[in-house]
Amino acid sequence: MNGSSRFLSAVSAFAISASVLTAAGTMVLVSPVSAEAAVVRRIDVRGAERVGADTVRAALTIAPGKDFSNADIDASIKRLYATGFFSDVRIGVSGGTLVVTVNENQLINQVVFNGNRKLKDDKLATLVRTRPLGAYSETMIESDIQAIREAYNAIGRSDVQITTQTVPVGDGRVNLAFVINEGDRTKIDNIEFSGNNAYSDGRLRAVIITKRSNFLSFLTRKDIYSEDKLRADEEALRQFYYNHGYADFRVLSSNATLDPNTNEYHITFEVDEGERYEFGPVNVESTVDGVDAEELKRLVDSRQGKTYRARDVQDSISAISERVAAAGYPFARVTPRGNRDMSGKTISVDYLVDQGERAYVERIEVRGNMSTRDYVIRREFDLAEGDAFNQEKIAQAKRRLERLGYFASVNISTQPGSAADRVVIIVDVVDQSTGNFGIGGGYATGGEGFIVEASVEEKNFLGRGQYIKVSASGGAVTRNYSIAFTEPYFLGYRLAAGFDLFKSENSVYDNYTYADQGFSLRVTAPITNNLTTTFRYNYKEVDYTSDSAWRLSQPYQDIVKGSPWLISSVSQSINYNSLDTMVLPHEGINASVTHEFAGLGGDSDFYKLSGKARYYQTLSDEMDLVASLGGSAGHMFSTNGGNLNVFDQFSLDSDDIRGFANKGIGPRMTKNGDPLGGTTYFTATADVSFPLPGIPQDSGFRGGFFLDAGTLYGNDVKVTRGVVQGEDMQWRVSAGASLIWASPFGPLRVDYAIPLVKQDFDVVQRLKFGISTAF
Questions:
Q1: Which positions carry the signal peptide feature in this UniProt record (predicted)?
Q2: Beta carbons of 611 and 594 less than 8 angstroms apart
Q3: Which of 245, 395, 460, 681 would give a disulfide with 434, using CB separation of 3.0 to 4.6 Å?
């Protein structure tokens, strides 16, 4: 009989009667009636050699000189078993003595792990509850085995085998070993869909988080199966269909079957797509006095005739809720009511604004965050304990948490609180990797040769939500180093404050060496959910040196002679970002405008105004064909009536117009081709990307074509000797193809561009590539 059975037997026996030992040592039964009034003078403990009699007495609910009942005996037995020190407990009464007889469990002397390679000892030690000097408990050990098995499942090893071994070491102590056979990695052989007609299996595999195993899965870990990921995949499918017109979409089932022979999962999703809808008539109604429904209607994003998108409905609810709350109605509720027209395949939406029930937040519970600290999650809520409950603020917090990039999934639910007007907010998150290792490079003519870049980035440093990045790059003639740090909630406010430190060296054509170093202090404040503004103070020291200054053009001879140069400036940027994702976006706009003033001391005095924008749009959902249009412009002038320095003027790099090297276009001296930069620039680009035919879409490979155009002109650098070329507005045009791969190392892009329109003095760079890698 094991400990649990003996425990139940003991409890059952005392539910009927109490055992009494006579002076002769024989057992007699005492009726419950006599036990109810029993009193003992002393307590005799037997068998507690290691634990000690005092420990046993401390666990009893019975004391000498006090009445006790069968309920006290029952409670004492339960408490003694709960200590984990005993395998058997018996309590009897002999005359005026309470006799407590126990059999001690063995004590754990040492806990070790054998056979583990993928999970280290220190990791496993935090999972098990069995500890040295603790009692040996079969129940606890079984629980520890299950915890170890779940940890191995989380790293993709579902066939792990775990046993235990004990070695007696004397004095009732044993060494306990968990013997682990880790087995092979459990893979995902295939992911299939049934019931999908509008989108192919390949298109839907690109939507979900879980991926099929491939030769690089050991790096990506996206082929690890878990129930949580499967639920997240279901939600990803729902959101995809809901935002593409399929309001009736359902996931009927999702199943994962493990083949024990191959140790591979086969995952199947059964879906019901339903019909594809467009928005019908849209209206706003209000039952709240003082709220103008017609004014609110202008805030609605769901327009009649557009493809139905759940995101548009949610954005409309958000806009209306914010406006009503700002008008002084914190409990107002916005409820969308949809009316389907099955024949016309439209959904009419009425947004009803009414005075919701008064409810308050009792507390916010955060669950599932293993790396991220609680306060990092809580601060994304505009609600605190005791505030008026507002569903829209809950939705805003969810969107903010998702945008952080810290979590694979975010789910927020509510539960009734301790009173009818109290609500408990439950936040369930699943952490994901937030570190990035980046490596990239390119090749440039004109002496640059190959350029290699590397960076280490962490978006959630120590789980505090802080951002840090260290990067370095170099080639035949360049060296660049930088450190960036951002605290997203400076002084407890929603202000992202940080700094950038940088140092670079650049030698051009062996005629001079260029070096700069400095720092930037910045603060970013939100204006709306998509609009932010950033203020910066910038300080830079620029140093030009040359052993053969006579070979340089006159402007460069002047800056070599005057080095080092100091630049002190302030700038402000306004950024608008509505992209669906920053990695391979499919829709939305990213735009910014920056103006900068230099002249707070230092050697530069200028004003710069620049801006850039990029628009993304999916041309075909089924083909996953995405187009983008972009452009940028800038202009600057001197603020002290003098000339600009070479290093002050604008320059364009290979990201602005592909096919040309950094500083490859624009005004330059005819002697040695020294680049001067320009006072004005314009660029334009058009891209289209698509999955590569014949390659599974969930592999992450995409192809693309692009057309770039740009010009850099104007010059305000003082030139007393030599001739400047390229001062006039002269457009350059290039076209090319791209290979894009959402690799385990992050998005990799290789661009090959052919300049179609160029000047003889331009510096060409046909090939450019870069990688940003997640680890």
A1: 1-23
A2: yes
A3: 460
Task: Decide: 659 and 766 in contact? Cβ < 8 Å.
Answer: yes
Q: Are residues 296 and 368 in the same domain?
A: no
CATH code, domain with 511? 2.40.160.50
Q: What is the pLDDT of residues 44-103, one digit of tens each?
A: 999 887 778 888 998 898 989 888 888 889 999 999 888 878 888 999 888 889 999 998
Asked if 475 contacts 497 with a C-beta cutoff of 8 angstroms, the reply is: no
Q: Fill in the amino acid letter for 361.
A: V
pLDDT at 209 > cutoff 70: yes
DSSP state of 356: P
**Do 262 and 201 belong to one domain?**
yes
Residue among 713, 710, 723 at smallest CA distance from 666 = 713
Phi/psi of residue 681, each to 5°? -145, 155
Range of the domain at 407: 360-431
Three-class SS string for 327-363?
Answer: CCCCCEEEEEEEEEECCCCEEEEEEEEEECCCCEEEE
Distance CA(468)–CA(453), nearest Å, equals 17
Query: Are residues 142 and 207 in contact, defined by beta-carbon separation less than 8 angstroms?
Result: no
Q: Which two tokens stand for residue 87?
A: 């395998």
Of 181, 211, 244, which marks where a domain is finished? 181
Picking from 156, 181, 206, the residue at the C-terminal end of a domain is 181
Q: How many domains does the chain divide into? A: 6
Give the SS3 label for residue 763. coil
Query: What are the tokens at 640?
Result: 């002290």
Give Cα 241 distance to the centre of its chain: 23
Strands (E), 462-564: 466-475, 478-487, 496-508, 512-526, 531-545
Residue 703's closest CA among 711, 694, 712? 694
Say if residue 260 is preceded by a cis peptide, omega within 30 of 0: no
Backbone φ and ψ for 10, nearest 5 degrees, come out as -65, -45
pLDDT score for 110: 92
* CA dihedral over 139, 145, 147, 153, signed as positive or negative: negative
Task: Read off the pLDDT of residues 10-59 as tens digits, 9 standing for 90 and up.
Answer: 333 333 233 333 333 323 333 333 334 578 889 999 988 777 888 899 88
* Contact call for residues 498 and 488 (beta carbons, < 8 A): no
Show the tokens assigned to 119: 């999970």
Statement to judge: residues 267 and 398 lie in one domain:
no
Residue type, 179: V
Q: pLDDT at position 368, please?
A: 84
Residues 291, 208 within the same domain: no
pLDDT for residue 345 is more than 80 = yes
Q: What is the amino acid identity at position 128?
A: V
- pLDDT per position as a tens digit, 279-322: 999 999 888 877 888 888 888 888 888 899 998 998 888 888 88
In 3D, which of 577, 648, 580, 570 has the Cα closest to residue 612? 577
Phi first, then psi: give them for residue 142, nearest 5 degrees. Answer: -60, -40
> What are 771's two structure tokens?
């990688």
Do residues 655 and 678 both lie within one domain?
yes
Which residue has 């509008």 as its token pair? 198
The tokens describing 544, both together, are 């030009």
Q: What is the pLDDT of residues 739-766, one digit of tens each?
A: 988 765 556 788 999 999 999 999 998 9
Stretch (H or E) spanning 357: none
565 is written with which tokens? 């140069």
Chain mean pLDDT for the chain: 85
Specify whether the CB–CB gap between 741 and 769 falls below 8 A.
Answer: no
Q: How far, in Å, CA of 7 to CA of 22, rounded?
A: 24
Closest CA relative to residue 704, chosen from 625, 762, 770, 768: 625
pLDDT confidence of residue 12:
34
The distance of Cα 165 from the centroid of its chain, to the nearest Å, equals 41
Confidence of residue 611 (pLDDT cuts 50, 70, 90): very high
> Do 287 and 427 have their domain in common?
no
| Residue 379 backbone dihedrals phi, psi, to 5 degrees | -70, -10
Length of the chain: 775
Q: How far apart are CA 478 and CA 747, in angstroms?
A: 24
